[in-house]
Amino acid sequence: MRILLPDALQKTLGKGFPEAEFAASTPIGSFSRKALDLFLDLADWADGVLLAGDFGKNSETAVLLDSFIEKYTGQLTLTGDSLDYLAQKPASIVERKNTLLVGNLGQIQKLAQPKAVVKQTADLVQILEVLSNWTVESSAKVITSAASQIIVASRGDISTTHSQNNEVGPELAAYASVWWLQQPESAFEALTTAVYCFINPSKG
């Protein structure tokens, strides 16, 4: 595993983080557009990429992420504010193959509009129906949450796993992406198993 961080963090982390590599950053510490070549180099080395979020609100970083997603064709998992960056150009990500979106229902809806609008009064069955219908048309796979359930949706298939904690963020995204890497031809089954084992670690 290799981790890419803005070079603004290099002095802070020093040599205590040997897995980290550092790419050009903006004056406020976000990734700069100049980081694209290193993004692509590391992605080419890896079997898959996780964009774990915490990018900060920066127009230059938005350009970088757009360029990276346009050029990279491998397995890609997005979570956190990486999903928010792409809400302005959702087609670039929801129509992309080899893509997993891990986020709350609001983030997923922003990417799926207008095809996957869920009313505030919708119950779990209605939410599942909307996600199922949307992922039949969309290439992206989804992990989200609603009504104390973690939901996996892929190509119309839906699974739910009960969870007291409905948070779907970087830790779950990393866990799910590894399961998906191990079983790329059975993504729905791999992601469903990943969610179950993440929620019930003693049974994994």
Structural class: alpha/beta
What is the overall silhouette?
globular
Order of helices and strands: EHEHEHEHHEHHEEEHH
Domain module count: 1
> Sheet with the most strands?
6 strands, mixed
Number of DSSP helical runs: 9
CATH top level label: Alpha Beta
How does CATH name the architecture?
3-Layer(aba) Sandwich
CATH superfamily: Ribokinase
Rg result: 17 Å
Question: Helical content, roughly?
Answer: 40-55%
How large is the share of residues in beta strands? 15-25%
In short:
The protein is α/β, with parallel strands linked by helices and 204 residues long. Helices cover 41% and strands 19% of the residues.
Blueprint (SSEs and pairs):
Layout lengths: L2 E4 L3 H4 L6 E4 L12 H10 L2 E4 L7 H13 L3 E5 L1 H5 L5 H4 L4 E4 L2 H8 L11 H14 L3 E6 L2 E6 L2 E6 L7 H13 L4 H13 L5
Parallel strand pairs: 1-2, 3-4, 4-5, 5-6
Antiparallel strand pairs: 6-7, 7-8
